[in-house]
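Issue: ligand-bound run for guanosine-5'-triphosphate - logging full I/O for the record.

Environment: standard queue, default settings, no custom constraints.

Inputs:
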Amino acid sequence: MRVFMIGYGQAGGRVADTFLEFAKRTGQNFVIRALSINTARSDLMGLKNIPMEDRLLVGELLTKGHGIGADNELGAKVATDDIYTIQSAIDKRGTHRVDAFLVIAGLGGGTGSGGAPVLARRLKKLYEEPVYGLGILPTKEEGSLYSLNAARSLVTFVNEVDNLFLFDNDAWKSGGETVKEAFVDINEEIVRRFGILFGAGEANEVGQMVVDAAEVMNTLKGGEISAVGYAAEEVGSEGMFKKFFGKKGTTLDRMDSVTRIPSLTRRAVAGRLTISCDPSTAERALIIAAGPPKELSRKGMEKSKGRIEEMIRGTEVRGGDFPVVRSQYVSTVVLFSGVSDIPRIKELQGIGAEAQAKLEEVSSEKEKGYKELLDTNDSIKPLF
Ligand SMILES: Nc1nc2c(ncn2[C@@H]2O[C@H](COP(=O)(O)OP(=O)(O)OP(=O)(O)O)[C@@H](O)[C@H]2O)c(=O)[nH]1
Ligand SMILES: [Mg+2]
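Outputs:
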């Protein structure tokens, strides 16, 4: 699938930047263009792979390029005020070869959480191609304001896009690293999964039953929220086999390649998903097996599809290959589209509602104080 990516805010920009790096490193061409939009000039300057001319500063009149500090409403206002600048920046870069748009943002801050839904709505008005969102949820440690922002942004974002992929930083953070190092690792994890999903339809090599972009898009159609699972295994083991058995592997290798895909699919589903959820609630699913074509067994894929069909609520399960001749790994990516009852969303909404109530209390206290002040002022007799 040829994707026009827009990274909105710092997280969005960094993830889009990592996508570009991944595409270059692996020789994939699924990123048609990657644009980064931010209210903070320094965040834009910190990117490595997105060309300078594709970094767009917005809200300059309001923020002078210094960002807007986790204010979700202000983030939405900036995007609304500057929507024509953003729109023409996208249009100028050419959208005729594009299969889909992907708007990426961290939903806990201000710029991306407020801006991404506004942009998605505009893109849907302007183009016929689907608009997907990749929303990154904050960690619990980031506090209730971030949860409130995420809860607010989620409800609008999910309504403005054709499908919203969620990734939960909270489930992926690991202790002991600095935040910056942690983000580098997390962004790699994000890009590996979605890079296979979007790259699959654009494979440079031929194979038996190669996934095409339409299959990915049909799986995403009509689903509100999607989660993705992934597992990989090294297969460059022929040398080892020779070493142990003194000949090239035959029967055992073939057996391996038939059982490998179902076993990797099982691991992808049972392992950590991009957002923790119950896959059985999914309306549709897609399995992609990536790796050297001789390792991608058709039988193995059929078996895996059968298992996922039994698992999910819906009946549509697609599957196919992403041949990568030179790869040392076989991996599977499983996309669950239209998942529901996501505990983390309920949690964010709970924390968000509490934070909202507290905010209202504070502002009504302030108002009360102000009124009292006015009342007192009233009782002060004019001097003249
Ligand atoms: N996965 C990932 N998450 C990030 C990254 N950078 C920030 N985040 C998360 O994204 C959320 C929002 O932060 P930012 O993207 O920095 O916010 P912003 O959109 O720039 O908005 P401002 O509040 O205006 O700075 C937070 O929950 C962060 O934890 C990143 O590189 N990768
Ligand atoms: Mg920022």
